[in-house]
Each structure stands twice: as structure tokens, then as C-alpha cells.
Design brief:
The protein is about 25% helix and about 30% strand. It has about 375 residues and is an alpha+beta fold. It folds into two domains: about 1-25 and about 135-195 and about 310-370, FAD/NAD(P)-binding domain (3-Layer(bba) Sandwich), CATH 3.50.50.60; about 70-130 and about 200-305, D-Amino Acid Oxidase, subunit A, domain 2 (D-Amino Acid Oxidase, Chain A, domain 2, 2-Layer Sandwich). Helix 1 (about 1-10) runs parallel beside helix 8. It starts with a helix and ends with a strand. Bound molecules: flavin-adenine dinucleotide. The site of flavin-adenine dinucleotide has 37 residues, from strand 12, strand 16 and helix 8.
Amino acid sequence: MSAAHFLSRAGWQVTVFDSGVVASGATGSADGAVSVASKKPGPLMTLAVAAVRFYERLAETGVLADEFMSRSTFMVAAQPDELDVLESQSAQLEAADVPVRLLKGRALAETVGAAAPAALAAVEVQGEGHAVGYRVVERLRRLGGFTIRRNCRILGLHHAGGRVDGVVTEQGIESFDAVLLAAGLGSMAFLAGPDLIRPRKGQLIVTDRADRDAPRFPGPLMSCRYLVSKGSHPAGNVTEARSLGLVIDPLRTGQFLIGGSREDRDDKDVADADVIASLLRDAVALSPSLAHLRVIRVFAGVRAATRDGMPIVGRVGGADNVWVATGFEGDGICLGPLMGHLCQQMICGQQPEHDISALDAGRFGLTLAEAA
Ligand SMILES: Cc1cc2nc3c(=O)[nH]c(=O)nc-3n(C[C@H](O)[C@H](O)[C@H](O)COP(=O)(O)OP(=O)(O)OC[C@H]3O[C@@H](n4cnc5c(N)ncnc54)[C@H](O)[C@@H]3O)c2cc1C
């Protein structure tokens, strides 16, 4: 949707095809952390810094006015073995010019003590934010300038004269000058290559509103175990089929969003009592006041995880007019608006304003699937 927005502003006639409705994929079931704190050090962290700044720019210029909220994230170590993770992630963030503040002793108690009495130490990561994925998509849709075809699955790319000249949909063939494959998990259907993207399910919990006496959360609390479960920290080259991290996110409504799991499954309509119970136990251990709240909803979504944990963004090998933007795993709400803008720049033949060579499709030798 972001690419459609920027391409239409650059003068292209754009059509978005979605096999369901927009934001019905991972974008509609995410927590919305526009966060550098949890990113893997290296190009992903650098791009996330740019992505947060890009959200700020879109909020200031009105495109995403009221849809982006600035805030700090608090990485919390509640077990002695998490202190190393806290220290090393904090050092990596500092090296990427992200302002961080170590909280120990009195500063810790004053800042997160009431919300996380079990905390041994915390790091405040400043200049982060929050945006609700489906609301961002809805804002861009309302700004308009392009056509949306809902419930219209793309079955394949249409080739003529040795190049792609359109798409084959359930409703027929449509001609286009350029195609961007941004179909999340569905993108691989158009690409030939090894099995690169796998589904990674996440389950999340929503509570009711906290009453006025509940401790005030200074921002989302991210347990250091979350960094390990996400694979952002070297200790966390996760190989298990299921891992649980913990983020307690105070929402604007007074509710809390508690997550989440990472499971090698794609059954997004199913919630498991044992996963939910474990997350709740961990959340209450970190912040006992949550025990007074009711859970009103649990939901799941499925992330598109690549083999190396990095998104795939760029031109598809062997085609001069087909681009791909997928594999955003747990980072697509943060990266999405910026990536759409960079895709627009590439499709317009410009140098993207940030270096995304680390995300290039060429690293996996991706080419187009057989002609439809
Ligand atoms: C539980 C959970 C929590 C998350 N939390 C965060 C977070 O806090 N911060 C963050 O930055 N990211 C988070 N993410 C990740 C983020 O949601 C995703 O990375 C992002 O939404 C991916 O966007 P996308 O557009 O690439 O894919 P999707 O949102 O999955 O969209 C793909 C779209 O393509 C359509 N489609 C598929 N195949 C076809 C086809 N053949 N023809 C036409 N249309 C097709 C689908 O219908 C769908 O609408 C989370 C994800 C989950 C599941």
C-alpha cells in the first residue's frame, strides 16, 4: 500500500491486487512496534532507524498524522542471565546512534519499578514509536490515487516477447509496465528458488482497560528474552519450532497487548491455551499488577520469515520490470512505509535513498517462476 501511495504520487497509474482484503495478512494482526530496539544489529538495525525517522516525516507532513505515536521502549532484564543480552543489545543500539539510557538502582525503580518490580536493570531506547498496521494501510487507502482490486488473486505473471507484461488474475489477464510482488507469504508463488520463506505464527493477548490505580507504564516493556526469541541477539539463533518472548505494550486505550510467540506454523485461526497461559504467567511475573486485568481477546497472525532473517527487497533476477518486497517477518510494520518509498524510487529508475543492498533478492539467486 505504501508503494502504491508513492508510485501514484510519482505519476504512475497503479492497481493493487489482493486475494482477500487489504491488511488481511500479517499487517492486520501485528502489535505495531515501530521499534529499533528489537532489531538485529547490522543493516536491519540501520534501516529501522531510517524507518522510524520516515514515520516521523510522514506524521509531520500529514500523510500519517495521528497514526504514529512517538515513545520509548524499555528493554528489561529480569533474570541474571539476561543482563548480558541487555548490555550487548544496548551497545549495538548506541553504535547505531540510537539514544539509550541505562536504568539501575533508583532510576530503575522510579522509571519502571512499579510496572516491572522484578526488573534487575533496564535500558530505555528513546525515539521509538507505535503505529497500528491496518490503520496505516487504511490511511494510505483513503488518500487514494490508485485502484484496489479486492478478492482478486494473482495466479501468475504474464509473459510476452521474453518479458513480463502483466498479471494473470482469477478474472483474466491485465497488462502492466512493471510489477511489484508484495504479497507476504504469497510472494514466493511467483518466484523460482529454494524454499526461502516459511510461516512463523505469533499469538497475542489483549486485556481490558486498567483502572486508574494501576501502575503507569512508561512505554512498552520488552523482556530480554524477547530479543533472544526473535533471533536479534546472537544467543538467539533460534532453531526450536516454538519460542516465546515477552512484550507488554500499554495501548492508548488503557488496555495492554501482550505477546508473543514465534512458531513454525501457519494456522492463524487457532490459539493455544498453553502458549497463552505461558505468556500470561511470564507477563504477571514481570508486572504483577496485570493479574487484576481480564483477557478479552487473543489472536494470531503469521509472519513471513526468510532463511537469513532479512527481508527480500529489490529487482528479481532475470526480469527488468519485476520487483519484490517480502519476508519482513516481525519487522514489516516498522519497515513497511519506508520500503514502499524505496521500491517507488527503484521502480522509477532512481537510486534508493537508503542502502538496501543487504536485502537484495540476488543473495538467494531468486528468479521468476515459469511463465503462467
Ligand atoms: C503476531 C505478529 C506481530 C507482529 N508485530 C510486529 C511489530 O510489532 N512490529 C513490526 O514492525 N512488525 C510486526 N509484525 C510483522 C508485520 O506484521 C509484517 O512484517 C508485515 O505486516 C508484512 O506486511 P506484508 O505487506 O509484506 O505482508 P501481509 O500483511 O501478509 O500482506 C500480504 C498480502 O498479500 C495478499 N496476497 C497473498 N498472495 C496473493 C496473491 N497471489 N494475489 C494477490 N494477493 C495476494 C494477502 O491477501 C495479503 O493481504 C508482526 C506480525 C505478526 C504476525
